[in-house]
Amino acid sequence: MRDLSEIVKAYDIRGVVGDELDADVVRDVGGAFARFVGGPAVVVGHDMRDSSPWLVEAFTEGVVAQGVDVVHLGLASTDMLYFASGSLALPGAMFTASHNPARYNGIKLCRAGASPVGQDSGLSEIKELVAHGVPEFLGERGSVRQRDMLTEYAAFLRDLVDLSGSRPLTVVVDAGNGMAGHTVPEVFSGVPVEVVPLYFELDGSFPNHEANPLDPANLVDLQAKVREVGADAGVAFDGDADRCFVVDADGEPVSPSAITALVAVRELAKEPGATVIHNLITSKAVPEIVAERGGKPVRTRVGHSFIKQTMASTGAIFGGEHSAHYYFREFWRADSGMLAALHVLAALGGQQEPLARLMTPYTRYASSGEVNSTVDDPAGRMKAVREFFADRSGARVDDLDGLTVELADGAWFNLRPSNTEPLLRLNVEAGDAAAVDALRDEVLGVVRS
After folding, report:
1. Which of 416, 410, 403 has its CA nearest to residue 430?
2. What are the residue numbers of the active site?
């Protein structure tokens, strides 16, 4: 029986190409996915990694061998694949390892309408089918056809966020040699935004920096370029362009929680009283602002499958995560960094203040960002932290996702185990930076003892 435990993650399939992920495995994944969704066709896109085309070829062989057709998008961002899945009402497969280094690749799967396929929504079944052997299909093979949907995708996004009335803006975009270099020129065609491109050349070896804007080291070039050209803002995308990070005219990063609050306010203006989803490590400013604007904030666990499921059950108009994933009901509840970026630029261009001042009302607290600790016994360290804070006066504890402790002064932290590594992930928020540092150090003193 084939062991896939190393490559089947919580939300996707991902591994080192040629070692953990090869043509045989991917062919069987294609066959298993075809049987899981049942046809009539699967839409497939891929990023710019050198391994992506031949992995797509293997996956396609597995799908058509089960009598299911394949629609090839070719080069695509992940949210473009979601657009295709939603607009064509077909299940989809996106070949990408997102922000991981060049030696990795992977597959993000979805049902028709961009509905997620994760461990609890089909991925475990696909894993078992591959592990035990995909049955041979004796009927007619499926067909393969090509369809370029970049223009349709770009037009759809521009219809959702109208920039036609914006004042002229200059924006530096760091594509990180990833898929934003393919999609940004088309999306921003005809809008009053001058794009200053940075690393738009598609190159899966990532010669300039990792395509992971969550790491501050990967924002340095963007920040410098924004200041050099006097841009109104800067936007950085990860490798598959489903996440965006924003910096202001001074090159200072804008918190993804503040972006969540800004977009939530814009969406609530279209549908007063609507529900907005936020995960439990976003700033508490997000639910405060949503409630103040008449919306209904709903808190969820971290992870796109939980966000999307909760959006579906509540009818939420929008959802945001502090990791810079932004989800839109009008985009089939899928995440789109590009759509979030358009919202930010529309808000900026619709008034005269600089971005830093525009974002001030949405930035109420100081935060630590995510602090990772490698530990031998995550469960034991979590228990030790719980016991350490158990007798703290006024402390409130919940277990929605890991351990969240809110203190009497309003400061709080969340400590979660990684899904894939022996790590504990800590996020802290408090009224000011000194209070954040003090609480962070207190928790880490227990975690790392």
Report:
1. 410
2. 98
